[in-house]
Amino acid sequence: MKYIALALLSLTTVTGFAQQKKKTSATKKKVVTTKSNPTNQLITKADSVSYAFGADIGNSLKSIEIDYLKADVIARAISAALKGEKSLLEEGQARTVIQEAIMDVRAKKEAASRAEEDKFFAENAKVSGMKSTAEGIQYLIINQAEGPKPKVDDEVTVHYRGTLLNGKQFDSSYDRNEPLKLSLGQVIQGWQIGIPLMSKGAKYKFFIPSRLAYGSQAKGEIPANSTLVFEVELIEIGANGTT
What we know:
- It contains 6 helices and 7 strands.
- By secondary structure, the chain is of the alpha+beta class.
- Strands 1, 2, 3, 4, 5, 6 and 7 form a 7-stranded antiparallel beta sheet that branches.
- The longest helix has 34 residues, at 91-124.
């Protein structure tokens, strides 16, 4: 019932705020309000606290991006709850309805992202020198090298720069002036597939589809369902920096 409680709190505030406006009209001689500054309508502490809760909850609900919510239906549910009337939905039903609605929104967003990603990779494949793996990673060879290649359970040392498709950088070992030592078995699938293609001294540019990166999960500055672009320079292979 957590989501329902939040929604109820949000619209209760809206209803209470409308009623408070009537009280404000009756005290115009004591309090001056202006249309240009809504905060002047917050007369009491209860007004301010209620408005703050409403704004916070409203923004949270908006972020879910369910665009078919009906404010009048929500208002009726609030009124019924405040009066102690029996809910039209049982607690278990309400939770299911909310979860299914959120899952539906996420599924639609993911489908749209996949379509855009597929379109990008189809066009990117036409770039001169672009290569592809069977798993769907695309890559350009910036600097080729010969020699042993790491296995998926090896430790490697790399320099790298990671960006989104719009060019926004989200991480860079170059900026830190410190290469990263890591175990390939503990990184995203895209790296587990791409880095074993390289030899020490090689530098590749990888285009990694979201399903081989972080999928539907957002990570720091990386939005959900993001295609990731990495420039990776393989410096060493082996736990002790030896090949």
